[in-house]
Every structure is written in C-alpha cells, then in structure tokens.
C-alpha cells in the first residue's frame, strides 16, 4: 500500500482530492501492463484495443513480473499509483499463448478478473481497409448468444467489456456520434458432443462501422455494417468472481443519487405510477341515499335489548306490500268518513222541505 502523504502545497492537495471517493466518479482509466513474457503480437493487440478507449488510457513500456492469480499486490500498487480502475495484463507462454488478463479494481483492490487467450487467426486494424472514426466516441454493443444472459462466466465477460468501453457517461444523445458497433458472439456447443461439453465456447470479437445510404423511404436511411477491425477470437481461461461483501459495497448507490420517493406513490413493473389517495373521516349521516320507505327513522331499531325481550314469529313480520295496503285502506276509510258527512249535510235541506 502507498503511504498516506500529508499535502504540503495546494497543488498536492488538489491531486490527492482527485483520488478521494466522489458522488459521481470519474471515467475509469485503463492501464495496459506488459508482463514478463509479453511479445510483439500482444503489444499490437493492446494498441488496437486501447484505440477504442482513448483518451482514458495509460501504457507501460517496461515489462513487469506479475502473476495476478498468485499475487495481485503489484497490480493493486499500479492501480493506486496511477488512479486506474481497469488493468489489462499481457503474458504469453506455452500453456497460455497470447493471454490477456482483464482486471477490475474497487477501492484499489482486485474486484474480479478473467483470462482471454487470443487465437492465432487474429487481424489488426492495419489488415483492414482504413475506415476511421473520431476518438472518444462511445461504441454500441451487440451480444449474440443466449449464454451471455445465462452462463455466469459469460455474464462476467459481458460486464467486463461493457465497463471497459463505457467511456464518459452523458445524458446527451446525438445520432452522429453512433459510428461503430462492437459485437461479441458465442455459439453454444452441441449437447450431444461429449468432447465439447466441458469446454466453454469461443468469444468472437468484431468491430463494424456504420454506413448510411439513401433509401426509398423518406427520413429513414439504409444502414449497412462494414468490418473495420480488429478481429479477435478469444478462448476463456481462468477467472475470479468478486467477493459477495465487496460486490455489495461496489454496487451501493449513494444517498444523493438515489431517486427521491414520494409518499404513497409507487411505480409498477410497467413504469406506471400507482398512488394511494387517503380520504378524511366521512359523516355518513349526511350521505344522500335513495329515498325509500325502509330508510325512514320510524323503522330504525331503538335498542338491541328490545329485540332480545320477546321472540316473534314469521307471521308477525309485515311486508312492505301489506304495509302499503294498510295505509291505502286507512286513507280510504278517512275519505269515506268525509264523504258521509257531506252527504248528511246535503240531505238536511231535503228533510226540512218535507217537514214544511
């Protein structure tokens, strides 16, 4: 580990502040380290790979005796010294020829790493027709094969390449900046082939440039892909997964970047907002309901004790029809009494005439 240095000047303090943890981290820098047994082919391969990562790269020219799977202390020292989160180590021997070791760091400690051996049928940028693109543009990625979403080793490969060529994160989108595509393909072996069941499929690394032409449809150009190189076929070697506790810390999002959650508002799986509306206490006595006879106050039950005092039969229950009939009969009786009084008053003059 590098000893802690107390800043003696403002310049040193600014340099140390750049290495401190930030809410929004800087773009990851890739460090290319040649191993003790590196060769010219690996040098040319790393030069082509670093051209897609520019300007966030650093290169070592001197060979270093580093064995990452046995002792990664030197890589951790290089990472902290150069403030680099990504390291590519090159080595070549009889057992693992043209070997590239991709290493990711977290807090200047090894997070995970994987070995990718380049087969001899590789082609460099100089072997293709010269079709350049601007430095610093972010590539588009295409992963062909279901193994990149199912197999843990290929998930690691996918995550490693996406993190390696991510570049500077930005919310601005410009179609003119989409100039090249990086494709990674993996063909699953036949399940009936016993010789290939224990072997992982190869990873085919290809780079294409987008070329647009006029089409018959307006405002929709015809897009074609032309390979510009480099072309690599990777064979997967040793790999190391991250520690669960370290992985939990690495994927933790700062509180300042976490989205502020509104009270009683959630988002479902389809991205729609689902909210809860709380209504105050309602006075049901003032609730407007349908005007019907059964809701009149005279039909309310006064006390529960009155119901318990005496039992009643079904014959004692008066239906609404019978109740209406009784009201109608009572009304007719009242009217009949009024009519009889009128008739008596009308008959009195006739009786007087007869007497006369």
UniProtKB/TrEMBL annotation:
Segments of this protein annotated with the region Disordered: 238-267, 293-356
Composition-biased stretches (Basic and acidic residues): 238-250
Boundaries of every Brix domain copy: 28-245
Record PROSITE patterns: BRIX
Stated family: Belongs to the RPF2 family.
Keyword DNA repair among record annotations: no
Record GO cellular component, one term: nucleolus
Record GO biological process: maturation of LSU-rRNA from tricistronic rRNA transcript (SSU-rRNA, 5.8S rRNA, LSU-rRNA); ribosomal large subunit assembly
Subcellular location: Nucleus, Nucleolus
A Pfam family hit: Brix
Protein known as: Ribosome production factor 2 homolog
Predominant place of localization: nucleus
Superkingdom field: Eukaryota
GO MF terms held by the record: rRNA binding
Acidic residues: bias regions: 302-333
Keywords of the record: Nucleus
InterPro entries per record: Brix, Rpf2
Record bears the keyword Transcription regulation: no
Record-linked SUPFAM superfamilies: Class II aaRS ABD-related (SSF52954)
């Amino acid at each position: 580990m590098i000893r802690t240095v107390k800043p003696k000047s403002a310049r040193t303090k600014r340099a140390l502040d750049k290495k401190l943890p930030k809410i929004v981290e800087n773009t990851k820098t890739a460090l290319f380290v040649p191993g003790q047994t590196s060769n010219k082919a690996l040098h040319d391969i790393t030069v082509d790979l670093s051209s897609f990562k520019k300007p966030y790269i650093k290169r070592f020219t001197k060979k270093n005796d580093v064995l990452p799977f046995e002792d990664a202390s030197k890589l951790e020292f290089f990472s902290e010294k150069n403030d680099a989160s990504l390291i590519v180590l090159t080595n070549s021997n009889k057992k693992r020829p043209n070997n590239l070791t991709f290493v990711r760091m977290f807090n200047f400690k090894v997070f995970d790493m994987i070995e990718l051996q380049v087969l001899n049928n590789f082609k460099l940028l100089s072997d293709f027709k010269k079709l350049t693109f601007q430095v610093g543009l972010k590539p588009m990625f295409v992963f062909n094969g279901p193994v990149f979403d199912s197999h843990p080793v290929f998930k690691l490969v996918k995550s490693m390449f996406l993190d390696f060529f991510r570049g500077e994160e930005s919310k601005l989108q410009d179609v003119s900046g989409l100039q090249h595509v990086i494709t990674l393909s993996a063909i699953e072996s036949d399940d009936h082939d016993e010789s290939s069941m224990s072997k992982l499929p190869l990873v085919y690394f290809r780079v294409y440039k987008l070329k647009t032409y006029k089409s018959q449809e307006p405002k929709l150009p015809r897009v074609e892909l032309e390979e510009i190189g480099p072309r690599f076929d990777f064979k997967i070697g040793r790999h190391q997964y991250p520690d669960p506790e370290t992985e939990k810390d690495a994927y933790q999002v700062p509180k300042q970047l976490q989205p502020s959650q509104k009270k009683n508002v959630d988002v479902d799986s389809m991205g729609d907002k689902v909210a809860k509306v709380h209504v105050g206490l309602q006075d049901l006595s003032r609730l407007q309901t349908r005007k019907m006879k059964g809701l009149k106050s005279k039909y309310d039950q006064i006390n529960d004790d009155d119901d318990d005092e005496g039992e009643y039969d079904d014959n004692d229950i008066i239906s609404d029809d019978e109740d209406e009939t009784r009201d109608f009969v009572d009304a007719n009786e009242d009217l009949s009494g009024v009519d009889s009084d009128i008739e008596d008053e009308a008959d009195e003059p006739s009786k007087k005439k007869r007497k006369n």
